[in-house]
């Protein structure tokens, strides 16, 4: 199962009281977008204003339709190939340090940015949009599943395993700090945080994953 989001309805998921992470950390999920024409956020660590944030975006309005990660809109890294519509894929961002962050599509197509950024102070997890206030949210239009956050930089081999369908809890479980399979119940299976469904995202089908 997965959760399906409609951009026109501003649908997204949110978990607050999530302790701010220091670099390095990793965010990953499976996704199935409805189009390749819009910029749509898969995930963000943010504060209440959205000024402090780390974001993973489907760059449908960008040349080549890459997956993009950034820090507060700067220090961007774009995958070397683009994502597709109406098919399940895997996205991963690794924020290594203030001088390094790497993005992956389907376990490859990686690219690294070495632009210097400031470590943001965040307090919430957002799935399907980038700021809690909803302004310029870049809402997701499509489906998301198997969402995980690790307080470590996963290796390329570990990310490739996730892209092949391994569940998040089987990869570096000692560093997994947030895990939302997004199978019906909205529960963070690692930290126990409540995940709020905003504006009616719905349950949808998802391909089999390796438990």
Task: Please describe what this structure looks like.
It is a single chain. The protein has 211 residues and is mainly beta. The radius of gyration is 15 Å and the shape is globular. Helices cover 4% and strands 42% of the residues. Strands 1, 3, 8, 9, 10, 12, 13 and 15 form an 8-stranded antiparallel beta sheet that branches. Strands 7-6-5-4-11-2-14 form a 7-stranded antiparallel beta sheet, with no helix packed on it. It has one helix at residues 156-163, and strands at residues 2-5, 12-16, 25-33, 39-46, 53-59, 67-71, 74-78, 89-97, 100-105, 108-113, 124-127, 142-150, 176-180, 196-198, 202-204. Strand 5 and strand 6 form a beta hairpin. The chain has one domain: Jelly Rolls (Sandwich).
pLDDT averaged over residues: 94
Q: What's the CATH first level? A: Mainly Beta
Any idea what the CATH architecture is? Sandwich
SSE string, helices as H and strands as E: EEEEEEEEEEEEHEEE
Question: Can you tell me the number of structural domains?
Answer: 1
Taken as a percent bin, the fraction of beta residues is: 35-45%
Low-confidence parts lasting 5 or more residues at pLDDT below 50?
A: none
Radius of gyration, taken over Cα atoms and rounded to an integer in Å? 15 Å
Distance between the termini: 13 Å
The helix tally amounts to: 1
Structural class: mainly beta
Annotation, overall tally of beta strands: 15
């Amino acid at each position: 199962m997965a959760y399906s989001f409609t951009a026109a309805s501003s649908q997204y998921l949110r978990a607050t009281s999530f302790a701010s992470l220091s670099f390095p950390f990793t965010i990953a999920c499976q996704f199935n977008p409805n189009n390749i024409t819009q910029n749509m956020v898969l995930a963000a660590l943010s504060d209440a204003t959205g000024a402090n944030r780390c974001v993973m975006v489907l760059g449908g309005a960008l040349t080549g339709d890459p997956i993009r990660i950034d820090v507060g809109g700067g220090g961007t890294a774009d995958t070397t190939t683009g994502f597709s519509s109406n098919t399940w894929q895997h996205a991963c961002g690794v924020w290594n340090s203030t001088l390094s962050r790497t993005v992956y599509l389907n376990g490859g197509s990686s690219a690294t940015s070495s632009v210097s950024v400031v470590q943001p102070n965040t307090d919430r997890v957002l799935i399907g949009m980038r700021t809690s206030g909803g302004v310029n949210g870049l809402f997701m239009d499509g489906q998301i599943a198997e969402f995980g956050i690790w307080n470590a930089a996963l290796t390329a081999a570990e990310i490739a395993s996730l892209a092949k369908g391994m569940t998040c809890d089987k990869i570096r479980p000692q560093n997994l700090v947030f895990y939302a399979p997004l199978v019906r119940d909205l529960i963070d299976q690692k930290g126990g945080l409540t995940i709020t469904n905003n504006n009616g995202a719905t349950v949808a089908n998802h391909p089999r994953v390796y438990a």
